[in-house]
Amino acid sequence: MSDIAAEQVREELSNWLDENWDPDLTVHDWWIRLAADAWAHPALPEAAGGRGYGSAQMSAFNATMADAGVLGPPMGLGYMLAAPTIAMHGTQEQVDRLVAPILDGSVGWCQLFSEPGAGSDLAGLQARAVRDGDEWIVTGQKVWTSGGQVADKGMLIARTDPDQPKHQGITYFAIDIDQAGIEVRPLREMTGEALFNEVFL
């Protein structure tokens, strides 16, 4: 973790923003610029495109961005959940391949955790993943998937060892949503909107 002082974060970021912020840039071009200089997600370790900032440094980062009135990094489930998880538990190859497109806003993610019979308690998880050579065959259904209709990738948890206790034998997968065998169906609300989806695997 970085030991840089909060005041130094403010000064360094302010100077960088003075040199780099351009309101005429497209949103994606701005996100690319943030990511290129490790300002997209400073809480991540340096090996994952961050700066290793702790809570005090992140507070200084967020306050400086807000004070400057500039557009922030690409938020969303990929930014909040996938990137930190992969940075902590993934191989360097996985980090390089999966985290960078999150930080520059190229790839959006959804969360494939909840099921019709398994919500916050994963003991009831029914989705299965079976190894087949170099691939995994996944079967099951997920529900309450925010943004599933627009996501590029999904954080999927599935049971890979049914002989283990119910809270074990579960594996976290990063999957492409746009592939054969995956169907995303909107859950229409009383308002007519469809913010959530059910996903069949």
Automatic annotation (TrEMBL):
Requisite cofactors: FAD
UniProt keyword Oxidoreductase, yes or no: yes
GO function terms (MF aspect): flavin adenine dinucleotide binding; oxidoreductase activity, acting on the CH-CH group of donors
Annotated Gene3D superfamilies: Acyl-CoA dehydrogenase/oxidase, N-terminal domain, Butyryl-CoA Dehydrogenase, subunit A, domain 2
Keyword set includes Flavoprotein: yes
Acyl-CoA oxidase/dehydrogenase middle domain sequence ranges: 110-192
GO cellular component: plasma membrane
InterPro entries registered for this protein in UniProt: Acyl-CoA_Oxase/DH_mid-dom, Acyl-CoA_Oxase/DH_mid-dom_sf, AcylCoA_DH/ox_N, AcylCoA_DH/ox_N_sf, AcylCoA_DH/oxidase_NM_dom_sf, Mycobact_Acyl-CoA_DH
Name of the protein this chain belongs to: Acyl-CoA oxidase/dehydrogenase middle domain-containing protein
Provenance organism: marine metagenome
Classification of source organism: unclassified sequences, metagenomes, ecological metagenomes
